[in-house]
């Protein structure tokens, strides 16, 4: 059986990655598995081990880092999040294409460890459109909106590090384009 | 029957438009008709009326311009080339998606006359790669190669005028992406 692809998907918060990924997951021909992260965050109501996250203690997480067991990791508001290498490898060896939805810093770590990873960056049609989407989604104070836009611009500086850039003007078309990319890489 | 799309495809000389278009034309589901141009150029050996070009006299061409019968036209080395509006409309009314392979100046004329045209610009992965392709294709003196690269850069300044930009790293993937774009526009 051919080993599955490792697909790294990044893009600024608000660009609509979630909708695009939902469309991608509907397409069974892509043989996609959405990668579940490991975290030190406590499970929220209704969350399940191995469905939403793999929940571990801070000590276990740090041991995993020290033992080189993570493809990438990052800290957010005091909690650690990472991608277990063995879990991803197991899926890929079963022929599954593994989809990692991660931020640019994590993506750079994956790129170093897996040079064969297929990296895709989703961009908004424009910064104005991104601002509109962020404003439309949550009624956050303008200051927070501006902070998110600044963060997006910083993230977009790393676009040249990605193999493909796909514009999310229409999530169905964006997912069709990503499907074409994945299908092509399944052939070659 | 739904009216066919008008698809405008541009890209610098050497980017590999020909190969991409050949791939696109193979896909019968796209229902594509490659638009035949009208020209004042004389037929070359083996060329056929209505297959390679519609051959007309300079007077006929200028009358067509004056009567507003062309979607776009341009002069190259003393000959006139243009796209007859009625011919394109007839194909579109038969439900065919009409593919126009034209230079940026022609594309801007079409955009003005047909704001519903679906415009796609094909870019090379990099200017270096474009230079490599131009050098690989014909053994032209370096001066000519540099002129073609300068022209390509000038053309690429008009990229923001196009609805979609597709990178031709791999002509099969590029044609798959363009197919996804056309299919999506056939639905909406």
Written overview of the protein:
Two copies of one chain form a homodimer. By secondary structure, the first copy, chain A, is an alpha/beta fold. Chain A is 43% helix and 22% strand. The first copy, chain A, contains seven helices and nine strands. In chain A, the strands form two sheets. Chain A has a five-stranded parallel beta sheet with strand order 2-7-1-8-9, with helices on both faces. Chain A has a four-stranded mixed beta sheet with strand order 4-3-6-5. In chain A, α1 crosses α7 (171-187) and α5 (127-137) packs across α6 (142-156). The first copy, chain A, is globular. Chains A and B meet through α7 of A and α7 of B.
Could you state the order of secondary-structure elements of chain A as H and E? EHEEEHEEHEHEHHEH
What share of residues of chain A is helical? Answer: 40-55%
Cα radius of gyration of chain A in angstroms: 17 Å
| Structural class by secondary-structure content of chain A | alpha/beta
Low-confidence runs of at least 5 consecutive residues of chain A? none
User: What's the shape of chain A?
Assistant: globular
Helix/strand layout:
The structure is a homodimer of 188-residue chains.
Chain A: E1 6-10, H1 17-26, E2 32-34, E3 37-39, E4 53-55, H2 58-66, E5 70-76, E6 79-84, H3 85-93, E7 97-101, H4 104-113, E8 118-123, H5 127-137, H6 142-156, E9 164-167, H7 171-187
Parallel strand pairs in A: 1-7, 1-8, 2-7, 3-4, 8-9
Antiparallel strand pairs in A: 3-6, 5-6
């Amino acid at each position: 059986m051919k080993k599955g692809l490792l697909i790294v998907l990044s893009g600024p918060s608000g660009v609509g990655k979630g909708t695009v990924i939902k469309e991608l997951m509907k397409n069974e021909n892509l043989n996609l598995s959405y990668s579940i992260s490991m975290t030190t965050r406590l499970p929220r109501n209704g969350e399940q081990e191995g469905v939403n996250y793999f929940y571990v203690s801070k000590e276990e997480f740090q041991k995993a880092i020290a033992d080189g067991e993570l493809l990438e990791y990052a800290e957010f508001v005091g909690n650690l999040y990472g991608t277990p290498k063995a879990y991803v490898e197991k899926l890929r060896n079963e022929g599954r294409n593994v989809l990692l939805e991660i931020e640019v810093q994590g993506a750079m770590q994956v790129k170093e460890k897996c040079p064969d990873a297929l990296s895709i960056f989703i961009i908004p049609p424009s910064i104005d459109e991104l601002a509109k989407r962020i404003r439309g989604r949550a009624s956050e104070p303008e200051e927070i909106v501006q902070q998110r836009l600044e963060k997006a611009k910083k993230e977009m500086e790393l676009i040249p590090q990605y193999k493909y850039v796909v514009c999310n003007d229409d999530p169905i078309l964006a997912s069709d384009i990503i499907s074409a990319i994945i299908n092509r890489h399944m052939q070659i």
